[in-house]
Amino acid sequence: MKRRSKLLILMDILNIIQREDGKAKPTHIMYGANLSHSSLKEYLSLLLSNDFIEEVKKNDRTFYKLTPKGYDHINELRKVKRLTEAFGIPM
Amino acid sequence: MTELIPLWFYAVTSIFYTCSAIICFLVSYFGFKAHRITSEKSHLFLFLGFLTLGLGFLVLSVPSLFTYATLELYHGSSISINLINYYGFRLYYIVSLFAYFMLFLSYLPKKLRSKFFILFVPIWYASSFEFHVLSVALISFIVFRCAANLKEKKNLNSGLVTYAFTSILVFHLLLLLTPFSGSVYFVANIFLITGFVSLLYMLIRVVCK
User: How is A6-67 classified by DSSP, letter by letter?
Assistant: First the structure.
């Protein structure tokens, strides 16, 4: 099985959040993206620092929500993924 | 070749090359986007490859248009045609060989890339027969990698890219045969434009899906 690149992992995380109506729990992201807890924290902080997602607290629970910038980024990533797949040059 | 190929076809090929150049620039724009996001060198080579290939086709459209305009519209001298063709084609050879080399590099495993830069030096001096043979060699590798990708992915987009590179390969192979038959020139250019149309269709699918 091939290793996913950092970019593909970030894309998986953004996809999972979008699939759950733009707001997901960290455990859902962790299992959905098949990540360890420490890796999840690392990737989430990267996405937070780039304003692709934001942290939302509701009833003592933490959620991660896609920002408009995050929505734009995931769309761009999908186009790039389709293009690179078509050419057979991996991301 | 002017006796064998009708003059109007020079105008048609000029349009073909301009359209091919525009499609190349579109692919290079998306290649640039991919590189900006991934910072991968292969995507940089893809961007540079299609950018220079587009420039090459733009350069190639000039001699064809000039030949048509001079002989058909202005009935000018063949000396100026020969001069424009000489410099136009030489510039096209250099620019498009650089483009094919960039595309070749984008498909080359990372470890081998630095070694191939040294090999590029003699390519600058190549022309005509040598140009087509070198182009065929470089594009054959790209077609092989695209076919392997198509076998793995089995999707239409990969098929369209494979067809596009195959048609560019056939274009160069057929141009090698033009001294024997002028009609081959027609077929070569038809192959080229269908390849770029397939590339355009792939881009539309990538952007609009």
Answer: HHHHHHHHHHHHHHTTTEE-HHHHHHHTT--HHHHHHHHHHHHHTTSEEEEEETTEEEEEE-
